[in-house]
Write the structure tokens for this entry.
Amino acid sequence: MKHIITFLFIVSLLVVGFVSLNYMWNWVVVDYTQLSKVAISIFVFIFIATGLAMVFSAAYARPKNQTDVGKKD
């Protein structure tokens, strides 16, 4: 699952980055109609969601044999 999230994050990062640079530099002529705006919004949402998923996954991940420091039984 982590590999899928990472893959989606990288793909959406590349798409959002290319669209942003294309918007600034006009490499490829794109008509930003409603459909393309929706597609770009979906990629931005995927980018944000997978980024947050990776952050929270890393925050809550810890080895199974790690004990809580300072916890008294």
Observations:
- The first helix runs from residue 2 to 25.
